[in-house]
Design goal:
The protein has helices spanning 2-42, 46-59, 66-79, 83-96, 101-113, 117-130, 135-148, 151-164, 169-181, 185-198, 203-216, 219-232, 237-249, 253-265, 270-279. It is mainly alpha-helical. The longest helix is centred in the first third of the chain and has 41 residues, at 2-42. The N and C termini lie far apart (115 Å).
Length: 281
């Protein structure tokens, strides 16, 4: 009887050791696949990375790391332009870790890229509920508020960002545009001047100031900024067109014609410029 018991114990021990070995091998295989997937991601081998992430998820669907894997898979799919698949992967990741602010931000930006403002808004609000001073979520939400023309709410978000980071350029630009939209031209002009003084080679700021001056009725000032933009970016065809428009509004047909012809040389179709050039005669 004791011999039988000993044999059973040995058999049981053998099974335990065997299963432990299988489990260790299984875990190593999962980890190896994940490492390969990450390496492929860093090396821009996106198709292979996508396949490897999916393989790892199938191999061990209950693994605690799968939320991160789904998130990484979503990011790879986003980079590949597979927007629907990316959203699905981020959603599966959030099913595992619903309070992950990084994954909420990732999904929110994909929704935003696809123009699904309401869904993006929910994700960014959830991030802010979890981390009220999250700059990225505040910035995106302010953009959505601006699109909705909910300027009071946008200003709150921009002010929170500036309160945390007084030199945050995007938030300060947002406040300038808010002032412009609300007819607060003096405040807008003062703040864009400060931004340009701190970023003198940022052509986008000069365009903003030019548009502000045009709205204020100062085309001469707008011309100076638009000419500066062309010096910074000589191949900026759109600004060349705008410069022509401003010159034409001032009655300076010769200068307008030169600007339009430059725009054509930079790639604007002649058909689009034909009527404008006719007005320069």
């Amino acid at each position: 009887m004791s011999i039988i018991i000993k044999m059973k114990k040995r058999l049981l021990l053998s099974i335990v050791v065997l299963l432990a070995g299988v489990s260790e091998s299984f875990s190593q295989s999962y980890n190896e696949i994940v490492e390969k997937a990450m390496s492929c991601t860093f090396n821009d081998s996106l198709l292979q990375a996508e396949e490897l992430f999916k393989k790892a998820l199938k191999l061990d669907p209950e693994n605690a790391r799968n939320a991160l894997l789904f998130s990484n898979l979503g990011t790879v799919q986003k980079r590949m332009g597979k927007i629907d698949e990316a959203i699905e992967s981020y959603t599966l990741a959030l099913n595992i870790t619903p309070y992950s602010t990084s994954i909420l931000l990732n999904r929110g930006t994909v929704y935003l890229d696809r123009g699904e403002m309401d869904k993006a808004y929910v994700d960014f609000c959830n991030v802010i509920d979890l981390i009220p001073e999250n700059i990225e979520a505040r910035l995106y939400r302010a953009y959505i508020y601006m699109d909705r023309r909910e300027y009071k709410e946008a200003r709150i978000d921009y002010n929170v960002i500036v309160g945390k980071d007084p030199k945050h350029k995007a938030a300060r630009i947002g406040l300038v545009l808010l002032d412009q939209n609300e007819g607060k031209f003096i405040s807008a002009r003062e703040n864009i001047d400060i931004l340009i003084a701190n970023n003198p080679k940022d052509a986008s700021l000069l365009v903003i100031r030019a548009n502000l001056d045009l709205e204020r009725g100062y085309p001469e000032s707008a011309v100076l900024d638009l000419e500066s933009v062309m010096k910074l970016n000589p191949k900026d065809a759109e600004t060349s067109v705008q410069l022509g428009d401003v010159y034409l509004s001032m009655g300076k047909k010769h200068e307008a014609k030169k600007a339009y012809e430059r725009a054509v040389s930079l790639g604007i179709p002649m058909a689009a410029m034909k009527e404008k050039l006719r007005k320069c005669k």
